[in-house]
Amino acid sequence: MLVSYKWLSEYLDLSKISAKELSDQMSLTGIEVEGVEVPEEGLKKIVVGEVKECVPHPDSDHLSICQVDIGEEELSQIVCGAPNVKAGIKVIVALPGSRITGNQKIKKGKMRGEVSNGMICSLQELGYSDNVIPKIYSEGIYYMPEEAVNGNDVFPYLDMDDHIIELSITPNRADALSMRGVAYEVGAIYRQTPKFNDEILVEDTSETAADYVSVEVEDKKDVPAYQIRVIKDVKVAESPLWLQNRLMNEGIRPINNVVDVTNYILLLFGQPLHAFDYDKLESKNILVRRGKHGEELVTLDGETRKVSEENIVITNGSIPVALAGVMGGEDSEITDGTTTVALESALFDSLSVRRTSKEFNLRSESSSRFEKGINHATIGEAGDVAAAMIATLAGGTVVSGKSVGSEIKLEDVKVAVTLSRINDYLGTELDQATVSEIFETLGFSYTVNEEKYVVTVPHRRWDITIEADLIEEVARIYGYDNLPSTLPKGETVAGSLTNGQLLVRKVKGLLEGCGASEAISYALTTEEKSRQFMMRESLTTTLQWPMSEERSVLRMNLISGLLDDVAYNVARKNTNVALYEIGRVFYQDKDPKKDLPYEENHLGLVLSGNTVVKDWQTKETPVDFYTIKGMLDVLFESVGIADKISYEGTKEIKELHPGRTASVKLNATVIGFIGQVHPTIAKEYEIPETYVAELNLQAIIEEENTPLVYQQVSKFPAISRDIALLVDESVTNQELAGTISKYAGKFLQSIRLFDVYQGENIAEGKKSMAYSLTFVNAEATLVDEEINKSLEKVEKALVEQFDVTIR
């Protein structure tokens, strides 16, 4: 919301209060000020000039040579290329040595051989954006009013010496989306009551609005309030300069005196209005209803919109002429030929307006206010003031009365609070006189019995409904900076981490020790990505009002977000990527009674590129399945569950390579997966060969981990024996290692697979696997007989179970 300091000064005495001081005080009382801008800052030596003579340039088909009166004894010659320059107009002149927008300096020079003493300016060259400049001046220079004095600075005429205060309005303070709302707010800060100088309505009693139009509202829940006023015999023309300046400084383009009044009232009251050309409606009936399938409407932006039952539309009894609360129709817009205006003032259902504006991607000042809320008490008053202004500025006559389709019944909102409650909340010792004075300056009427206040909240503050709201108002006006600072009281206990938090920290340290970096991805993603790499069946959890389609669904995996991170790095030539993420995924059961998603803590890991970088003495080593599996093995070993973990090949996860993927089991329960991203998926993400793993970290935390037992290093020597096996290629290392561990006896310390071979001299369908077994007896030196007995048992079990050949 942009607030004009000059405009605000019309309602309050700000003569001793600077715009800077005002903005600071507003920020302290809860309405944040983004900044204060003075449009004339950075501009200098820009004056009013009058074109006395204008002739075509002899050497150009688009330039004109102008003799301009800038308040000096002699006329100043300026060459101008604007198509609308002519003799007899007053213009904006940048003198030699002046500065225009962009800190551009204007110098005396020549154009096509003719001297040019400065420049005749458009509004763009003074810093106005294209979307606020009146259309008739958008392609040329701006005409100053006749009363402007030649040679004087242009800034006061254009209100460029005003201070524009930009407010950041939170949704709960939509009352401050109007000049009147801001005036009440500032008045409360400085203990003033704003005085408004609204135009007085004069009606022509010879006719009534009912003679022109009747209004019917189909569903009063959609349209709680709707009324039409009629202004006849209007003459549509350009608005006076003061109104144009006010709108441009507020970021709104002036159109004509009728439309500009509706925008002015929007800013003044926060009440959106719409003006119809009565004759173009071609009907005396206005019906407000829901749209019907197949209906179309050409809106003011020239686009054809297909309306639906989700949209509230204004019709002339049969066909739509406007999207309620969003945008009017092109066929009924105000033009130069308009003579009778039907002025709409209404209240529409905020949810419907929001859906309509989102559906058609039409965000406007009007739709924004209907969505956030408007003052129900001034719906009619705003229409009355607008009608009076149109009659004054356009020379029309206001027909008496209104055609009303629906009216809202206003009920007083009363909220009770006690003085002790206020002081307990704020930590203050405010007395009754201070609190009463605050309520009075806010314009809140009240009764007080002993220390209990019953406050009647004015309708302009529809955000106040409960006791806490009143306490907040007292705190704001008293001053947040005046509230006392106190230290917490009471007993405290030493904080500590839970076992789960300790384990998560340990996991992070382990993975970072293995070379991975932590990543944090968005919990919101697309529906397609949310359903990739899923570990269980689940419904999708979709946001009702997402920021964008890319952030519309809660994730059900961590890998898709990490792959986006890999793609981001690879696109920037960082090809060696090792990332992990610990975060929540969101599952939703198909049981209709369980409508909330279930959150589960997961660990995601992704590797891409090389694990060893090439240099003068080493070859580069790309990451593979066993690189990422080794990291998981380190993790499981460190948290004490390695003996409960097993891996099993799987082809069920379609986003992973079917021959390089395994499910991870804790005891007999699948808690995750590990594997290579399928080449087609990698191509979609635009990443090279990449390996991923995802685990249910919650299951690991809940598992009772084997405690870590420290043992003294044996003083007796360890003995290593190698064993080579010829087995079917379908037999896994996990199966062989499990059997060896089971039958090797109590002195077996470790098993290490050091060779796998398939090829020449090995039968097809077979493979050779070589293991190194280490035996240790902590109490005595092992002898060959003991080792040989253990190996015999192992070999026998391997032959019986896997039909191996001992090599």
From TrEMBL:
<dbReference type="GO" id="GO:0006432">
    <property type="term" value="P:phenylalanyl-tRNA aminoacylation"/>
</dbReference>
<comment type="subunit">
    <text>Tetramer of two alpha and two beta subunits.</text>
</comment>
<dbReference type="GO" id="GO:0005524">
    <property type="term" value="F:ATP binding"/>
</dbReference>
<dbReference type="Pfam" id="PF01588">
    <property type="entry name" value="tRNA_bind"/>
</dbReference>
<feature type="domain" description="B5">
    <location>
        <begin position="410"/>
        <end position="485"/>
    </location>
</feature>
<feature type="binding site">
    <location>
        <position position="472"/>
    </location>
    <ligand>
        <name>Mg(2+)</name>
    </ligand>
</feature>
<dbReference type="GO" id="GO:0140096">
    <property type="term" value="F:catalytic activity, acting on a protein"/>
</dbReference>
<dbReference type="InterPro" id="IPR004532">
    <property type="entry name" value="Phe-tRNA-ligase_IIc_bsu_bact"/>
</dbReference>
<dbReference type="Pfam" id="PF03483">
    <property type="entry name" value="B3_4"/>
</dbReference>
<keyword id="KW-0694">RNA-binding</keyword>
<dbReference type="InterPro" id="IPR012340">
    <property type="entry name" value="NA-bd_OB-fold"/>
</dbReference>
<feature type="binding site">
    <location>
        <position position="473"/>
    </location>
    <ligand>
        <name>Mg(2+)</name>
    </ligand>
</feature>
<feature type="domain" description="TRNA-binding">
    <location>
        <begin position="40"/>
        <end position="155"/>
    </location>
</feature>
<dbReference type="Pfam" id="PF17759">
    <property type="entry name" value="tRNA_synthFbeta"/>
</dbReference>
<keyword id="KW-0436">Ligase</keyword>
<feature type="binding site">
    <location>
        <position position="463"/>
    </location>
    <ligand>
        <name>Mg(2+)</name>
    </ligand>
</feature>
<keyword id="KW-0030">Aminoacyl-tRNA synthetase</keyword>
<dbReference type="Pfam" id="PF03484">
    <property type="entry name" value="B5"/>
</dbReference>
<keyword id="KW-0067">ATP-binding</keyword>
<dbReference type="InterPro" id="IPR045864">
    <property type="entry name" value="aa-tRNA-synth_II/BPL/LPL"/>
</dbReference>
<dbReference type="InterPro" id="IPR005146">
    <property type="entry name" value="B3/B4_tRNA-bd"/>
</dbReference>
<dbReference type="GO" id="GO:0016740">
    <property type="term" value="F:transferase activity"/>
</dbReference>
<dbReference type="InterPro" id="IPR005147">
    <property type="entry name" value="tRNA_synthase_B5-dom"/>
</dbReference>
<dbReference type="GO" id="GO:0004826">
    <property type="term" value="F:phenylalanine-tRNA ligase activity"/>
</dbReference>
<keyword id="KW-0479">Metal-binding</keyword>
<dbReference type="InterPro" id="IPR002547">
    <property type="entry name" value="tRNA-bd_dom"/>
</dbReference>
<keyword id="KW-0547">Nucleotide-binding</keyword>
<protein>
    <recommendedName>
        <fullName>Phenylalanine--tRNA ligase beta subunit</fullName>
        <ecNumber>6.1.1.20</ecNumber>
    </recommendedName>
</protein>
<dbReference type="InterPro" id="IPR009061">
    <property type="entry name" value="DNA-bd_dom_put_sf"/>
</dbReference>
<keyword id="KW-0820">tRNA-binding</keyword>
<dbReference type="InterPro" id="IPR020825">
    <property type="entry name" value="Phe-tRNA_synthase-like_B3/B4"/>
</dbReference>
<dbReference type="GO" id="GO:0000287">
    <property type="term" value="F:magnesium ion binding"/>
</dbReference>
<feature type="domain" description="FDX-ACB">
    <location>
        <begin position="714"/>
        <end position="807"/>
    </location>
</feature>
<dbReference type="Pfam" id="PF03147">
    <property type="entry name" value="FDX-ACB"/>
</dbReference>
<comment type="similarity">
    <text>Belongs to the phenylalanyl-tRNA synthetase beta subunit family. Type 1 subfamily.</text>
</comment>
<feature type="binding site">
    <location>
        <position position="469"/>
    </location>
    <ligand>
        <name>Mg(2+)</name>
    </ligand>
</feature>
<dbReference type="InterPro" id="IPR033714">
    <property type="entry name" value="tRNA_bind_bactPheRS"/>
</dbReference>
<dbReference type="InterPro" id="IPR045060">
    <property type="entry name" value="Phe-tRNA-ligase_IIc_bsu"/>
</dbReference>
<dbReference type="GO" id="GO:0000049">
    <property type="term" value="F:tRNA binding"/>
</dbReference>
<keyword id="KW-0460">Magnesium</keyword>
<dbReference type="InterPro" id="IPR041616">
    <property type="entry name" value="PheRS_beta_core"/>
</dbReference>
<keyword id="KW-0963">Cytoplasm</keyword>
